[in-house]
Amino acid sequence: MGASISVKTLGYTEKLMIYAKIINEKLDVKAIFSDETENFRTPSEPSKYDCVTIRIRTAKNNADNVYLIYDDKKIKMELCDTKGDFDYFKTVVAPESEAKTYYFEIEKNGLSIYYTKLGVTDDLNKEWHFKILRDFKTPDWAKGAVMYQIYVDRFYNGDKTNDVKTNEYIYLGKPTNFISDWNARPQVEDIRNFYGGDLQGVIDKLPYLKDLGIEVIYFNPIFVSPSNHKYDIQDYDYVDPHYGKIVKDGGSPLVFEKFNNKHASMYVQRTTDKENLEASNKLFAHLIDEAHKNGIKVIIDGVFNHCGAFNKWLDREGFYGNTGKYPLGAYKDKNSIYHNYFKWYDENWPNNDCYDGWWGYDNHPKLNYEASKDLYDYIMYIGKKWVSPPYNADGWRLDVAADLGYSEDFNHKFWKDFRKSVKSGNPNAIILAEHYGDASKWLQGDEWDTVMNYDAFMEPVSWFLTGMEKHSEDFKGELLCNADVFENTMKYNMAKLSYQSIYTAMNELSNHDHSRFLTRTNMNVGRLHTKGSEAADIGVNVGIMKEAITMQMTWPGSPTIYYGDEAGVTGWTDPDNRRTYPWGNENKDLINYHRAIINIRKNSEVLKKGSVKIVLKDYGILAYGRFYKDDVVLTVINNTSEEKEISVPVKNIEIKCNDTLKSRIVSYENGFDTTEKEYKVIGGVVKVVVPPFGSIILEKVN
After folding, report:
1. Are residues 324 and 460 in the same domain?
2. Where are the beta strands (DSSP E) in 311-449?
3. Longest C-alpha distance within the chain, in Å?
4. Phi and psi at residue 276, in whole multiples of 5°?
5. Which residues of 343-359 are buried (b: 16+ CB within 10 A; e: fewer)?
6. Bridge partners for 171 per DSSP
7. 515 and 398 in one domain?
8. Cα(70)–Cα(101) distance, integer angstroms
9. pLDDT at 72
């Protein structure tokens, strides 16, 4: 090998070019490019029987030799094509049964540089190598699909007969409360407050979602549960009748002289009676069928690390065992058939409070799979049940998935088996996990498909555009408008994921666990209990919100809208982020912007499948291209308070001199423009004027 140029810090390609010029090499490192998309690897998702063609691009007549370092073997690549300003080199690797890694060496006049998923670098740690994961295919429908997250209680009340009643039962020491004013803001203690949103409400609003352009609904948990968030599941086999159908009502709410759950007869009737449960499941099957007819997939939330204290297996409240229709729960009886479903620390039966809770929360009893094959097998059955007929859900989002089990080895075993079970029921279902940090151990093709993309989308975008942490708990001025940090963070975190996972990753701006992005644009630190809900509305910048939407809709992955973001909903982190959808009070401009930009994305193969490359960075300025086959889309972001004329170099996203680009949409604080305007590429540069706190999407005219 030739001498290696040392570039210790990612992002210093400019420094590398200076070094190259000093030694008269004139190696155009910015032109070098490869990734795992179909542009540069075919097939992108190979089976163990496939030969794989791997390609890399260099500047024309700029490299003497190009090598593929494949599984530590050095293979000389052949020049296979010259197109425009670039040479393309390729080689073919044979079928393999195991995963293999690779990177590239580019040589000129005895000098070698190296190209990994970080770009041009001398950090050859295998963590940054490209990787061929055999037999790992994620659903094509999920790649780049536009998703919509629904927190059911706050979306739309379509059936008032199933509303949770005030004083229907006691939850965490206090009675439930029905909020009759749909527009009332969440209170600090919100978990037992209900607004009445339900599955019929979603069915009623399917035309709205279809018109918006939504391709996938992701539901927060829908199974029987006493909270409005439903992450403390009571019965995995049934949809909560408060979301579904109550066909057999009875009993009454609690009254003063009988104010405890022993007398919660209405709640017991509603949530344990099989007629209600089966009718609710039937409604959910109908909802999915209607969604599918409208071209919309449905993903459901799986909470398998823990259940709820009301769960029929523990039955702390006696809702099940006391009916005589269900076995006794493990809380009441040491000899319960469910005893081994939980981890016990003492022998205090009956009413044994000494069980393990997730993070110590006794209302979230941790499930002890290691001690119960029955429990293990049951959840495998549940994983398959809901993606199979008659329900036909299209996948699972997995809550706190890395926490499941009592050891990492067991955790991986569980998810491997879960994947087999789910895919046996629906081979085209997606398995998408909640995870913070490096998830690569679970994303090798035999466990999860992908993740909620905090590290390689939500957080970097939030820091760059607002300087705000995703909970609105911190502001860092040094990260606001810092395009270098944004690029480096994105590259490092995307490098940990495979093509299969990146292009299906859930790219969110907001969700039920974090502050609303629109509130983050006010750059104020706060929470509901410290500043009140009104402070979350003050000083927001809709222009910055639109910039974020532009990035969300043009970056690789699946853009996921948290219900109401498109309508201008604000809010601190939970519970304030769980405000109701403002039917009749929507920000129409934001809805129209979403609709217009989703339409652009849905009709653009390049935005779903294309490579991505950042071509310009400055303070508050970012430009990047997506390219696929002969199509190119250029996105330019201006996160400053001044209009900017920006000269964007476009050669390295495969746009030639004299090519023409046309604008598809321009956003600004008080509106947007879809008027098409043509821009000529002169000297490898296109000049665009971008409004303050604005963005523009341009498309190459072929």
Report:
1. no
2. 395-398, 430-433
3. 91
4. -65, -45
5. bbeeeebeebeebbbbe
6. 174
7. yes
8. 6
9. 86
Task: For residue 140, tell me if it sits in a domain.
Answer: no
Res 264: pLDDT: 96
The one-letter code for the residue type at 512 is: H
Q: How many CB atoms lie within 10 A of CB 577?
A: 29
Q: Are 553 and 529 in contact (CB under 8 A)?
A: no
Beta-carbon contacts of residue 31 (< 8 Å; ≥ 6 apart) = 57, 58, 59, 62, 85, 86, 651, 652
Distance CA 702, CA 181 (A): 53
Q: Which residues contact 475 (CB under 8 A, 6 or more apart)?
A: 467, 468, 469, 523, 524, 525
**Residues 220-249 pLDDT 10s:** 999 999 999 999 999 999 999 999 999 999
pTM: 0.95
User: Number of folded domains in the chain?
Assistant: 4
In terms of domains, do 292 and 313 share one?
A: no
Alpha-carbon distance of 112 to 20, in angstroms, equals 11
Non-local CB neighbours of 493 within 8 Å, separated by 6+ positions: 455, 456, 460
- Evaluate whether residue 606 is within a structural domain: no
Helix (H, G, I), strand (E, B) or coil at 71: coil
Residues ≥6 apart with Cβ < 8 Å to 156 = 197, 198, 201, 202, 204, 205, 581, 583
Residue 4 · residue 122 · CB < 8 Å = yes
Return the exposure string of 210-242: e unless at least 16 CB atoms fall within 10 Å of the residue's CB, then b.
eebbbbbbbbbbbbbbbbbbbbbbbbbebbbbb
Predicted confidence at residue 15, as pLDDT, reads 52
Backbone phi and psi for residue 677, each to the nearest 5 degrees, phi listed first: -130, 135
Domain coverage including residue 337: 308-366
CA distance readout (Å), 134 to 48, 97, 103, 142, 296: 5, 7, 17, 19, 29
Query: Is 121 among the domain residues?
Result: yes
Taking residue 82's Cβ as centre, other Cβ atoms within 10 Å add up to 11
Question: CA 653 to CA 656: how far, in whole Å?
Answer: 9
* Of the candidates 57, 234, 36, 212, the residue with the CA atom closest to the CA atom of residue 136: 36
Please tell me what DSSP assigns to residue 5: P
- The radius of gyration computed from the CA coordinates of the chain, to the nearest angstrom, equals 27
Is residue 471 within 8 Å of residue 436, measured between CB atoms? no
As a whole number of angstroms, the distance between CA 538 and CA 544 comes to: 14
CATH number at 486 reads: 3.20.20.80
Sheet strands (E) in 260-328: 297-302
Q: What is each CA distance from 354 to 211, 311, 350, 358, in whole angstroms?
A: 51, 16, 11, 13
Residues of the chain with pLDDT under 50: 1-12, 18, 20-24
Q: pLDDT tens digits, residue range 12-24?
A: 455 555 454 434 4
For the chain, the first-to-last Cα distance in angstroms comes to: 41
Cα dihedral 673, 674, 675, 681 sign: positive
